[in-house]
Structures are given as structure tokens and as C-alpha cells.
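During the reporting period, our protein records have gained a C-alpha cell line. A sample record is set out beneath this paragraph:
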Amino acid sequence: MLGLTRPAPAPAPAVPEQSCRQCGAARPGPSVTFCRRCGIPYGSAPSAQAQLPSCPICYVTVDDAGLLASLAGSGRRVAIAEHVTEHERYPVGDDEWLESLRVGDRIRVGDGWAPFDLVRRYLVTGVIDGGRGRQYQHDAIVTAISQIARWGPGEIDVFADQDDWRAARLAVTRLMERYHRA
């Protein structure tokens, strides 16, 4: 047995990229090698000038390599298409229940109404951000979300507090607790 060496293990087959790392567009088939939207090869890092895609479920933006941490906690980094698929096993909250409260593009919270997308984004991220170019929504619910983001969900003593703001903060706190209930 002297002089005999073990053959090196065969490398694992590479898994082809299922989405573009720059725009997040799904790969239409295995024969397609370049993204039709961006023009970069599948598996290539996004260009430095590109606006990077964000997950439509948890709002996380991909890094400079166009990848996100796997939700499975394995330490792997995955493309956005695989990340979105992982949300089926790792949901961010009870979206079916939240959708049941929706009326058009608004949601009823307590006695007030607020933009559905803004409330959902806040429930998922904990950050109130209307986004660039969007006019800030001024109503009691959004003010309550801002106050909770600043001072926390507990009972707080706010100088010159108004009854509708206090009621809205309590309603948003109850909504947060129900949405994130396991």
C-alpha cells in the first residue's frame, strides 16, 4: 500500500444561479447565461453603480456580492430568489392575519387608518421609513409608529400627549404583539 494515494474527491457540482444578483430577476432556463434585464452573467457580482434588489418579504437589501445570509442559519449566502423561497419555511410574521385587516391599500388599526405597506414594513423591520420620494403620511397611526420606534412599545409619558395618539400607540402595540406571535 505504500506509494498509493487516494484519489482526490470529485468537486461538488456547482448549483447554477437561479436569479440575477443585480436585479433579482429569475433565470428563465438553464440555457440562458446572461440576465436579459441587466446584461450581466448569472452568478456575477452586481456592478458598483447598480441599485441593488431588496427582498419583497423582509425588505433586506443584498450585499455588494448580490447575496443574502441564508435564513436556515447555516452560514451560507444565497441569491435573492433562494432567499425568497426560504421565507416559506421561515416566515417573518402572520401575513395571512394581517391581510385580513386590509381594506384596499390601507389597514385599520384601533380607531385609525394607515397605509398597509408602511405598517407591514414597520412590523417586519421595526423601522419607519417611507422611502425616497414618498410623501410622509400624517395620521395618528403613523405618528404612533414613530413614537413607538423612538421610545419603545411600553406605556410612556409623552409631554403634550393627545388621547388619539395614546390610543393609537396601544393599538399598534397590540398589532405588533399579535403579528409576531409564534
